[in-house]
Structure formats: structure tokens, C-alpha cells
Specification:
By secondary structure, this protein is an alpha+beta fold. It is about 40% helix and about 20% strand. Helix 7 crosses helix 8, helix 9 packs antiparallel against helix 10 and helix 12 packs across helix 15.
């Protein structure tokens, strides 16, 4: 960031909170699936912090956190503990939060993002486990008076926090980091990691300092970032705001600011607490956690193939370009569907490689267009598939195209019917009479009709307008419902128009 007087370095660290997909809350047996339920219906004495209650650690939450740390290349220490983080907000039932501070479950990791064709490594300071807070609900009564209510359903939900090193340098890098982290969490199956729904929350900490200086500038934390776009816009706005302050000789306040997506600006919320303000001390009601190396290795063995490894394997095993492999591995279920479609009938290596590329092209173009246009939910497993085209049917459709049983144009109509009815492709072809025709006599009759019906296009072509030929080909394809073989159509049209 260059100004008229000073060159500033942007320094950004990012805290990401993700609710974990456990069945129960962090320290009690209440169901953590509170979304859409009546307020204060998923609560118990532990959630409500009644006197005399004792927390019990959720083993699954610990496992999910360690698995995340392993996926982020973290070291897993042999001991970890929970601490009391003391602060007094209305939505904090106990007056403190059970969290982790100096002995987290995971530390000293990293993840890599693709930044303009180059790989950038961003450090991960720690991954620790804590409990979520209750939720404040702000209302206005009939007299116009504001008041607040508390919904305790969210209180105690397992919340994993991933804290990055201050290695991020722009809004774009922040977006890439959070996007990559979301992808990893979803591959692991430990969190829905949805910013829009609030089960993943991103809080960048932005500061500026003159280039060459080691000391950090005043840090500003951003909240209320409900999308990747908001992450990038919020960080970039804050960089510009702090630059303007420093240029004018005014200090940057150490504070927490909220992002207002409607106006594209950050707004002050409160002064930012420092670690000492929380008065951390060990949680006396919970034991020190002993983490055996053998246990860590058991969890490592449970890790699925992660996005980077899967992308590299797709390039190596299926002969895909890095670009196609990246698109196919953005989502784990999408990638699983692709693999299932390719591997149903592996066949010889040459034929398998060709089919792998054809299926990739189909999924990234026609398949994606139809699915997106119809707003169909997509999941890749056979057990829960909601797109009514199982991988085997896509494989069969591609085989029909390869065998020239159906044209590429006709295949689009076949796929639309497959998506609607769930029928296999051969049945759709047979029922709708979509078998490709390539005979010169049958196609020639349609070609003659099209030439007779479009004298202007014929004149354009004979006058040197080559694009008129494509129009006429399209007319033949429309009349044959995509059944005519396109190269035969083009050949017949050219012969007749030049004769």
C-alpha cells in the first residue's frame, strides 16, 4: 500500500470460528441441532449455567478438532487444557466462556492458497476448541422502545477456532484463505462451514505499519462478514480507511468494527479487548487432556483425501488439466460423483483416459448448466443423491455419444429428461426416438426443405457470408430434434449450396 508520504505494509491475521457437526453440545447432552426450533427449547442446567452444574467434554468435538489440525499440518501436543475466558456480555450465560489459550489441541500449522498462479503458504497459529455463546435478539415494542431477548439454544454448541499467523496481505488473500479453509472443513465432514448461515464466522484483524518496521500497528477486528465477497470488500475498505487516517496524522483506534454490506463500510462497535483483559486461568471443572501419539495416528488414518491431493491425483490419473481438476475438486461430493462416473467401466487405459476427459467436459459444461438452471441440490453419493442422474447413467450417456448412437445436441435433450424422470439414457433415447441419423438420403430430404425455406440465408452464403451456413445447419438440427449427425449435415448443405 503506497501513499503520498509513506509506504505501508498491510498485516492481516484471521480468526475463523466453525460450529462442529457433533450430535450434542460441547459440555452437555443437549442436541446441538437447534436451527429452526423454538427459542430456548434446546437447553438444560449446564446450558443455562445454573449453580452446581459440571461440564463434560464432548469426545467427538475433540476428535474433529484434532483431525482439522492434522489436515492443516499442525503439531498435536501430548497435553491440552481448557481455560476460562472471562468477559461479561448478556449472551454469555456463565459470565465466562470455556475456551483454550496457552495449551490448545493443535498448533504451528499452515495451508496453501493459489495466488495469481503462485502458491502462498499462510501459517496457522493454533486450532482450539471452545463453546459458542447464546444469541441476542433485538426487538422494538409498540411504543417504539428497544429491548433485547436471549435465545440460549446456541449456547454450548461446539465451536472450533482456527487462528492464522499475520501472513495475509490483502482482501483477495483473505478471501482465498477462508475459501480454502471452508473447503477443507467440508471435505473432513466436521462442519457445514456456511458463512451465510452463521455456522462459520470469519473475523480478520487488520493493521498497517510502515515498511521495514517490525512492530505491528493498531489492530482492528472485523465482524459480521457473511460471505466471501464481504470478507474481501471489508478488508479492502478497512485498509483504505486506516491508510487515510495515517496519512492525515490521526491514530488508528484499537477496536472491533462491524461490516455493513448494505453501505459497503465498516462501523465502530466497541473497543477491542487484549488477551490480558480476559484474565485466562485453567478451567477447574475439567481435567487436563492427555493426547497419546497412537490416538493421533488413529485420527490421521481417518482423514479423507484432501482437496490438493485429490486435484493432483486427478491430473496424474485421469489426464485432466490443472484447471479442470481444480473445478472438479472444489466440492468433495462433486469430485466423488465424477470419480464414480469415470470408474464404473474402467476398460482399457486409453479408452478410460478419453472417457475421463469427456465426462469432465460434460460435468463442467452441460451438466453444470442444467443443474444450475434448474436449481437442483447436488450430492454425489448414491445413497442420498437428489440429482436424479446417478453416476452410472452419466457414464452410459457418454458411451452413447461415443458410439454416435445419439448426437451431442440430442444428448442434451436426453439429459434433461434423465434429470426430470430419473430414467436411464438408453430408455429415453428409445422412447423419444432420439437415435442419431447419419444416412445421406434421410438427412438430405431435410436439407432440401431447409434450403427451400430459407432463401435469404442461402443468398447470404452464396454471397460469401460463411456464418449463414451455421444458421442453416442449426435449422436442420432443429427439424431433426438434434438427431442428425452435424458433420453430415454440413457436408450435404455445402454440396447443395455450391452446386
Amino acid at each position: 500500500m503506497t501513499t503520498s508520504t509513506t509506504t505501508y505494509e498491510v498485516v492481516i491475521g484471521i480468526e475463523v470460528h466453525a460450529q462442529l457437526l457433533t450430535r450434542s453440545k460441547m459440555f452437555c447432552s443437549c442436541s446441538k441441532d437447534y436451527f429452526g426450533t423454538p427459542v430456548n427449547s434446546h437447553v438444560c442446567p449446564v446450558c443455562l449455567a445454573l449453580p452446581g452444574v459440571m461440564p463434560v467434554i464432548n469426545r467427538q468435538a475433540v476428535e474433529y478438532t484434532i483431525m482439522t489440525g492434522l489436515a492443516l499440518n499442525c503439531t498435536i501436543p501430548q497435553q491440552a487444557k481448557f481455560d476460562r475466558k472471562n468477559y461479561h456480555y448478556p449472551d454469555l450465560m456463565k459470565g465466562y466462556q470455556i475456551s483454550q489459550y496457552d495449551l490448545p489441541l493443535c498448533e504451528n500449522g499452515w495451508l496453501e492458497v493459489d495466488l495469481d498462479g503462485e502458491t502462498k503458504r499462510i501459517g496457522v497459529t493454533r486450532v482450539h476448541l471452545e463453546e459458542d455463546t447464546a444469541r441476542s435478539m433485538h426487538r422494538t415494542n409498540a411504543a417504539g422502545e428497544d429491548y433485547s431477548l436471549i435465545d440460549v439454544n446456541r449456547s454450548g454448541v461446539p465451536l472450533m477456532e482456527v487462528v492464522s499467523e499475520p501472513d495475509v496481505r490483502s482482501g483477495k488473500e483473505a478471501r482465498l484463505y477462508v475459501t480454502k479453509l471452508q473447503q477443507i472443513l467440508r471435505y473432513l465432514g466436521v462442519s457445514q462451514a456456511n458463512l451465510e448461515e452463521g455456522n462459520m464466522r470469519c473475523e480478520p484483524n487488520i493493521s498497517l505499519r510502515p515498511v521495514g518496521r517490525d512492530e505491528f500497528g493498531s489492530k482492528v477486528e472485523l465482524k459480521n462478514l457473511a460471505s466471501f465477497r464481504a470478507v474481501e470488500r471489508g478488508v479492502n475498505f478497512e485498509i483504505e480507511r486506516q491508510t487515510a487516517l495515517l496519512e492525515s496524522g490521526r491514530p488508528v483506534e484499537h477496536e472491533t468494527r462491524g461490516w455493513r454490506d448494505d453501505i459497503g463500510e465498516t462501523v465502530s462497535q466497541r473497543g477491542k479487548e487484549m488477551a490480558e483483559d480476559y484474565r485466562y486461568f485453567p478451567e477447574p471443572d475439567l481435567p487436563l487432556l492427555a493426547i497419546a501419539p497412537e490416538y493421533v495416528e488413529e485420527l490421521r488414518a481417518k482423514l479423507p483425501e484432501l482437496p490438493d491431493a485429490k486435484r493432483e491425483r486427478f491430473v496424474r490419473e485421469y489426464g485432466l488439466s490443472a484447471y479442470d481438476a481444480n473445478l472438479l475438486t472444489v466440492d468433495g461430493e462433486w469430485a466423488g460423483y465424477y470419480e464414480a462416473a469415470v470408474d464404473i467401466d474402467p476398460g482399457e487405459s486409453d479408452r478410460r483416459a478419453a472417457r475421463a476427459k469427456t465426462i469432465a467436459n460434460w460435468m463442467l459444461q452441460d451438466f453444470a448448466q442444467v443443474v444450475n438452471a434448474q436449481d437442483v441440490a447436488f450430492v454425489g453419493s448414491e445413497e442420498s443423491i437428489s440429482v436424479r442422474v446417478p453416476p452410472a447413467h452419466l457414464n452410459q450417456l457418454v458411451q452413447l455419444i461415443e458410439a454416435e448412437t445419439v448426437s451431442t445436441t440430442g444428448a442434451k435433450s436426453v439429459f434433461a429428461e434423465m434429470l426430470s424422470s430419473g430414467k436411464p439414457p438408453q430408455q429415453v433415447v428409445d422412447e423419444q426416438g432420439l437415435t442419431q441419423i447419419s444416412g445421406a438420403d434421410e438427412i438430405g430430404a431435410v436439407v432440401d426443405d431447409v434450403i427451400a425455406a430459407n432463401p435469404d440465408a442461402v443468398a447470404d452464403y452464396r454471397g460469401g457470408k460463411e456464418t449463414a451456413l451455421q444458421f442453416l445447419v442449426g435449422q436442420v438440427m432443429r427439424q431433426t430434434r438434434g438427431r442428425a449427425k452435424p458433420d453430415v449435415v454440413a457436408t450435404l448443405l455445402t454440396e447443395r449450396l455450391r452446386s
